[in-house]
Design brief:
With 284 residues, the protein is α+β, with helices and mostly antiparallel strands. 27% of the residues lie in helices and 23% in strands. The chain is elongated.
């Protein structure tokens, strides 16, 4: 169908000539010289209209409509990502691959749990052999005014060890700094670890939820400290927001703000197997 429309666009004048030819064969018997004459006319709705004028109007209207369709096709082929995605959609963002093997962390303030050659969009199990239910990158926010889309890791790409008595400010700084490893500077302009406000905004409350944009199946850290100043916020396996200061190894979710005005050509599989991820195309 797409090729047929392109054929019509490229051969619009030939098609119109063909239509006019059919009209001639159907009963218009005037010669070409007569049809171009202002003297040949007919009456329509009480008005006398020359055949030449009627044909000119038909041709101009048809050409304008084809030009409109052609322009619409261009917009659809390269649409603004912000205009077509919804919160929760997958986007084929590629943060690259890990260049080394790093085991799960066992000391406070350290990261790990990933393998060399593994795409950073994949998820890992941080404890109790529990891996998140999702991987890849999903839409967290859309700003239509700036045409900016913010993504969040659908699961957790690595693990962080926060020990009892550890300072929340220090851990939060480490999480945000570590998130810079997920920046693909071709497409993204900033990164940080998902925080309490962003997790809360998904459902507007702290309760357990079935919304899988927040509930990934495992517990993960949020880069917001608790009021105690020792522990910090996290999301439980059921999606509930809570905080603690226990000694735990959990994952975290990098948040990526894409550059303004990113384009897309539609949906296709991403590098970690999600089938309907929106492509990313740099603006001209």
């Amino acid at each position: 169908m797409k090729r047929f429309l392109i054929y019509l666009f490229e051969n619009k004048r030939m098609i119109i000539s063909f239509i006019l030819g059919v009209m001639f064969m159907s009963g218009i018997t005037y010669g070409a010289d007569q049809l171009t004459s202002e003297g040949v006319s007919y009456t329509k709705a009480g008005n006398v209209i020359t055949v030449k004028k009627a044909l000119d109007e038909l041709i101009n209207t048809s050409l304008a409509k084809i030009d409109e369709l052609e322009e619409h096709a261009k917009v659809y082929k390269y649409a603004y990502l912000a205009d077509v995605v919804k919160v929760g959609d997958y986007v084929a963002y590629d943060a690259g691959e890990w260049t080394s093997d790093v085991p799960k962390p066992t000391e406070y303030g350290t990261f790990g749990g990933y393998s060399k050659g593994k795409n950073k969009g994949e998820s890992v199990a941080c404890r109790e052999s529990q891996a998140p239910n999702f991987q890849g990158w999903r839409v967290l926010k859309v700003d239509q005014n700036s045409k900016t889309v913010t993504l969040v890791h659908a699961g957790q790409p690595e693990c962080y060890y926060h020990a009892y008595g550890g300072l929340s400010d220090e851990s939060i700084k480490k999480l945000n700094n570590q998130s810079q490893n997920y920046l693909n500077f071709n497409y993204a302009q900033s990164a940080h670890a998902m925080n309490y406000e962003e997790a809360l905004d998904i459902t507007k409350n702290e309760d357990a939820t079935d919304d899988d944009l927040r509930t990934t199946g495992v517990r993960y850290w949020l880069s917001t400290k608790a009021s105690s100043g020792i522990g910090f916020w996290g999301v439980d396996t059921n999606g509930r927001l809570d905080f603690n200061n226990f000694q735990y190894v959990n994952g975290f979710r990098p948040v990526i703000e894409l550059k303004s005005g990113m384009l897309t050509t539609g949906q296709e599989p991403d590098k970690v197997g999600n089938q309907n991820a929106w492509t990313l195309v740099l603006p001209n």
